[in-house]
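Cross-check.
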Amino acid sequence: MRTFDLAPLYRATVGFDQVADLMDRVLTDNVGQQTYPPYNIEKTADDGWRISIAAAGFSDDELSIEQRENALFVSAKKAAEDQHRTYLHRGIATRAFERRFHLADHVRVTGASHVDGMLNIDLVREVPEALKPRRIAIAKGETVEATAVETANA
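Predicted model, tokenized:
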């Protein structure tokens, strides 16, 4: 049950829309939350991750990975079924799916592989040089402002 109203947050902040949207998504009670296919998210480095999705029964041509803005879309659609097969038991789920992962700023896909029924997607955070912290050198000696203050006080 949702008990928080985020409307005041939207009215009182500028530029924090992503944080409010994230909180709204987390606090929303999704009863029909998707559980197929199962997946793992692992940390591979300080700024690297891997998403592993169990995609048994799908070929490389039937899988699709797309990155749009801060979202990663993984989908699969099975090609036409072979009508000549008669199954006595069908326990391998090969139904179509679409998974969406929200990515942080500056996270991008570096590669993907499909091995032994596992779809592995590698991600890395690449912060642009302009946004990285930089050290500012401090000049030694007197500055113009300090000299002007001393002269005014004398």
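The CA atoms of residues 46 and 125 lie 9 Å apart. The first strand starts at residue 39 and ends at 45. Passed to J.P. for a second look.
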